[in-house]
Amino acid sequence: MTLATEIREQPQVLARLLDRAPAIGAMAAAIGARDIEHVVIAARGTSDHAAIYAQYLFGVLLGLPVGLTTPSVLSLYGAEPRFGRALVVGISQSGASPDIVGVVAAGRRQGAPTLAITNEPASPLAAAAEHVLDLGAGPELAVAATKTYTAELLALALLAAGLGHGGDPLAGDPDLARVPAAVAAALETEAEVAAIARELAPRDACVVVGRGYEYATAREWALKLKELAHVHADPYSAADFRHGPIALVDAGFPVLAVAPSGYAAPDVASLLARLRDDLHADIVVLSDDPGLRALGRWSVALPALPEHLQPIASIVPGQLYAMHATLALGLDPDQPRTIAKVTLTT
Questions:
Q1: What is the band of 165 on the pLDDT scale with cuts at 50, 70, 90?
Q2: Which of the residues 91, 122, 211, 279 has the least number of beta carbons within 10 Å of its own beta carbon?
Q3: Which domains does the chain have, with CATH numbers?
């Protein structure tokens, strides 16, 4: 199965990317020399979730505000935003979507530093940008993106470390070297994840919650469930979920929670306790913290990483869950209905 193979390739993909840390650091140093004041990112789909991760990563570690562009402002309405002292980034597995290319091309026309993060270094996006960060993940043939997503996250983490530490990512953030092994450990949860997925597969709706860095994970896990298992999976920040959507939950309603230790953990724990004790939800918890896992009817142990790197491993059980839920429903995860690998939006 192509999807299964690509999910299991991720430790090797990430290790290869780490081998290129010096080159990524040199790129970061060149970008940092431009004295950027904020970051603007254009992305769609799975890559948009990498952009959400970047909002927390650059905001927390570098103090840089990160805005997600609205590509239609340019592509549909012909209005070109003024980027000022921004780093303009396009993130795209294929590098082919015209609206993402258009944002980066506009940034370059205005003299802003521009960066393409893509798995296709010969793509239109790469041609439009001043700097190209090639993910080097190898061909991703499955329609649902997996290895390119975790590669995007690690690429962003390497870039942030390079920007923050004078162009030497691994010296500035030695924990980056732990990521491939942590992802390999996350893959070892497959048997227990598959058992949970089979039990919950008949449920056609759920919510997925996370907070802080893991909001990106919640959104990506929900997308995989929609794409592959055709589940109405609604993702939320644990904070936003309290502002109305919690009304969705009644006894037995599935809640999938990404809740590793870190600054966001106490708030997520408080929400899960209410969902369990007051609303009697059926909760699945992904966490490295046994106390947080105890809040779920089911739980999966995550390998521990620093909070800013944890999403690279946290999504792996989510990918496995989506794949096994799809199989349990008698569907083919390599042939999801109505969607294609490359979507060209304008």
A1: confident
A2: 122
A3: 2-183 (3.40.50.10490), 188-328 (3.40.50.10490)
